[in-house]
Amino acid sequence: MLTQILANTTPPIILISGVGILLMVISNRMTHVVDRIRQLVSYLDKEEGKKLSVLQAEIKIMMKRAHVLRISIASLCMSILSSSLILICALLEAFHDGIYHLVGSFLLIVSVIGIVIATGALLTDVIKSLHALKLDIEIRGL
Asked: CA angle 137-57-34, nearest 5°?
């Protein structure tokens, strides 16, 4: 029975660890975006003309990135919560017969969907990041 419990609880624990690492990476990206927005806002008062409009455009892109990263973080948190509930279902299934395996399967699907959404949002963030980089290069006249 102990072997069965370990076999049923190991995959959710590994999933939680992997998603946690991805969450840390995306949180770092969010910190960078917030810092960059603050930096760009501080430049607004000093610029005029075309540089001002480019700064405003870059701030808009950064705000979109922040919203996309928020979606990614929420999706990963949903995935971790689902994985944690899978762990509970696996433990309950070991001690009682019931529909725990069906609930666990549903939660696994929810967890994977959360990872897929977060990955899509991360890809969107990378694309927007490159767009912001292009504007930053343009503002410096390179």
From this structure: 85
pTM of the full structure: 0.83
Rounded distance, CA 128 to CA 134, Å?
10
* Alpha-carbon gap, residue 83 to 28, rounded angstroms: 23
Task: Report whether 107 contacts 87 (CB < 8 A).
Answer: no
Total tally of structural domains belonging to the chain: 1
Amino acid occupying residue 34: V
Domain range for 28 is: 2-139
Q: State the helix-helix crossing angle for 2-44 and 49-95, rounded to 10 degrees.
A: 170
Average pLDDT, the chain: 88
For 113, counting Cβ atoms within 10 Å of its Cβ (0-12 exposed, 13-18 middle, 19+ buried), the class is middle
pLDDT in tens, 98-112: 788 888 889 999 999
d(C-alpha 57, C-alpha 51), whole Å: 10
User: Tens of pLDDT along 60-74?
Assistant: 999 999 999 999 999
